[in-house]
């Protein structure tokens, strides 16, 4: 258990994933609720046209 300052407004009993970066900083990533738990069929469906999809230009994917 880790105590965090109140000014960070962390919810009590919330679940977080910890990630330690190369520079030693610790990042807390909150666990997200299942957005699709109570979704009806077709509610989040969205057809994409080919022009809406990003396509890398020239050799951009190698950068």
Structural descriptors:
mainly beta, 16% strand, single chain
Concise overview:
The protein has about 60 residues and is mainly beta.
Rg on CA atoms, Å: 20 Å
Terminus-to-terminus distance:
40 Å
Q: Which oligomeric form is depicted?
A: single chain
* DSSP summary, beta strand count: 2
Overview of the structural elements:
The protein has 63 residues and is mainly beta. It has a domain at 34-63. The chain contains no helices and 2 strands. The protein has strands at 16-20, 26-30. It has a two-stranded antiparallel ribbon. The radius of gyration is 20 Å and the shape is flat.
Task: List the topology elements.
Blueprint: E1 16-20, E2 26-30
Antiparallel strand pairs: 1-2
């Amino acid at each position: 258990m880790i105590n965090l300052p109140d000014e960070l407004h962390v919810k009590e009993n919330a679940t977080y994933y910890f990630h330690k970066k190369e520079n030693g900083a610790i990042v807390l990533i909150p666990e997200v609720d299942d957005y699709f738990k109570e979704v009806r069929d077709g509610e989040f469906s969205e057809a994409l046209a080919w022009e809406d999809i990003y396509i890398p230009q020239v050799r951009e994917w190698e950068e």
